[in-house]
């Protein structure tokens, strides 16, 4: 029971009374829980979600509820690939970042070798090495705010957004998923 006599989001969606030991109550609030549980019910079914949560230790249920909700939302956005398309997009971003890093390291090594007796490295940085930064995005790399890493759109199969519309290399998949679910 979510408190003050109001049912949890799952029981509200299922139109049933929320009992004291409801398995869904701690994980699906009265306000947003119904919308998140609707996706879970449509993709996995209430009975399957209940069985899954009840077979897990209490310490792991919160993570499982978050994961199930994220996977259900991803499956509704992309019925064929679901959250796997987000994983592929993140892997593609890692490969692109590694290539850009090695390119910048090579450019820095070349610039430092050419100007070892003259100006410091920062002064010798050319426009090509600066082109990956956008002054309008507070020095965030351009590839983060462009391409397929923007907000999720209907039918999109390669995008995932954090709470501010960008995925950065400092965020892990769980925090991105949590922020994305909060945004919905």
TrEMBL record:
Start and end residues of each LOB domain: 6-108
| Signal peptide region | none
Q: Which top-rank group of organisms is this from?
A: Eukaryota
Name any Gene Ontology BP term.
hormone-mediated signaling pathway
Matching PROSITE patterns = LOB (PS50891)
What protein family does this chain belong to?
A: Belongs to the LOB domain-containing protein family.
What is the protein's given name?
LOB domain-containing protein
Q: Which organism is it from?
A: Asparagus officinalis
Q: What is the lineage of its organism?
A: Eukaryota, Viridiplantae, Streptophyta, Embryophyta, Tracheophyta
């Amino acid at each position: 029971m979510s408190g003050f006599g109001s049912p949890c989001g799952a029981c509200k969606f299922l139109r049933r009374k929320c009992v004291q030991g409801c398995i869904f109550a701690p994980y699906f609030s009265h306000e947003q829980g119904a919308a998140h549980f609707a996706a879970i019910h449509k993709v996995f079914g209430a009975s399957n979600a209940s069985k899954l949560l009840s077979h897990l230790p209490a310490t792991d249920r919160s993570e499982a509820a978050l994961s199930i909700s994220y996977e259900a939302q991803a499956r509704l956005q992309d019925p064929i690939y679901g959250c796997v398309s987000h994983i592929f997009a993140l892997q593609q971003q890692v490969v692109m970042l590694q290539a850009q890093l090695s390119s910048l390291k090579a450019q820095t090594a070349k610039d430092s070798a050419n100007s070892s007796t003259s100006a410091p490295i920062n002064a010798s940085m050319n426009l090509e090495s600066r082109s990956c930064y956008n002054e309008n995005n507070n020095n965030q790399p351009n590839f983060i705010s462009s391409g397929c890493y923007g907000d999720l759109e209907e039918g999109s199969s390669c995008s995932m957004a954090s709470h501010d519309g960008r995925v950065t290399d400092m965020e892990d998949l769980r925090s991105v998923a949590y922020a994305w679910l909060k945004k919905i």
